[in-house]
Amino acid sequence: MATPHIQAESHEVAEYVLMPGDPLRAEYIASTFLEGAKQFNAVRNMLGFTGTWKGVRVSAMGSGMGMPSIAIYAEELCRFYGAARIVRVGSCGALQERLKLRDLVMAVTACTDSNVNAIRFRGASFAPAADFSLGLEAYRAAEKRGVPIHAGTILSTDTFYGHDGDIDWKLWASYGVLAVEMETAALYTIAAKHRVQALTLLTVSDSLCTGEAASPEERERSYGSMMEVALDAVIA
Ligand code: HPA
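Above: the input record for the complex with hypoxanthine. Below: its predicted structure, written as tokens.
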């Protein structure tokens, strides 16, 4: 079997999938955390691997950046490969001062400035939400490991670089939105359509409030603990 963007037999992809934006992060998850990992996809270099975590089969596959990209891979994983749980593991920009670099953010729900859902729902507004039980497991796993985690609303934006510098993030911040990234509103919507459990975990890589950004070494360390939290949650 193959889909336009995934060249794998259906049995090669696990029911539980971690999705980093960067396909090389999928390779990192596979080589660092999964036992006996085998690659199942290389179409467009969107690498995908399946191995085991604590004896349970788990896949890790890149999503690419932005909602059109993750929407393609999530749809194909849900519709053709029988994904049952998808956990996005990514990075975000903090919109609130209390969020520190390397903290974890759990997206309970995602606002968006994108038109993708306005098109899908004919102008009405769908509320993309995380799977509650998956979120609960991730929150517990983070607390158990002593990883600071903030659960709340995030913004999925279509523009990393705005017209005139930053996006209009202060508007969203004034409504308590925790952080900004570029994929979750689409992931939660597609998962809902297919009754697939979905969750997004993000590491704070930069802060729009303070202008600071984590160094590559700092990112590496915090990504590691996020992956362990995500893996524990997805197999729970
Ligand atoms: N904007 C959008 N996506 C992001 C950011 C940001 O500032 N940081 C990490 N992902």
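Notes for the reader.
The pocket of hypoxanthine is lined by residues 91-93, 157, 160, 180-182, 205-206, 208 (CB under 6 Å).
The longest helix spans residues 216-235.
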